[in-house]
Amino acid sequence: MESKPTKLGEMLLQAGLIDQFQLDSALSYHRNVGGRIGTALVKLGYIPEEKILEFLAKQSQFPRVDLHAVDIPRTVLSMIPVAKLYKCMVLPLELKMDGAGKMLVVAMTDPTNLFLIDDLQFMAGCRVSPVVAAEAEILSALNRYFPGGMPIAASVPALSTLEHNRQTIINYNDDRFDRLVALLHTKGILSQREVDRLK
Fold this sequence. Notes:
10 helices, disordered N terminus, 3-stranded mixed beta sheet, 12% strand, globular, mainly alpha, GMP Synthetase, Chain A, domain 3
């Protein structure tokens, strides 16, 4: 097994499941909109998510898991912050012990994302072993274990905070406030009604 697996887009290209134009388009979408490359390929209509999951499951190091059939201990779920689980669409499933120490099994849509795996390993304080699951299944499981849904990220200001600090921000730099509100509206965090309230 390679110590550094090829990225998902390159793997799909080499397997003939997408072409170079589709990969380039998905990379452009990914750069401009964010998210995961697999999600970009699916949203652009180049490949069904099920086909990506089947492909990854055939790779011996990326087994597929049925999230409806697992019961996850709270101690395992708490190893990674809830906001990170939702943001990255990952779900810790099991903490194992082997000769090399602790290993956390994590369900994710793109097990070739080494940056994400490194990030999760740092947060969990142990090695991470990725398994494959559909994004919809991960989201459904997250909502099952965290009925309140995704917490508001600390970096996103609440509407009341923006309203409260509006005058201070305007006095400092009116243009910056308007750009912040426009960005939050573009990202879907603020509705048009909320934007109008802030004007």
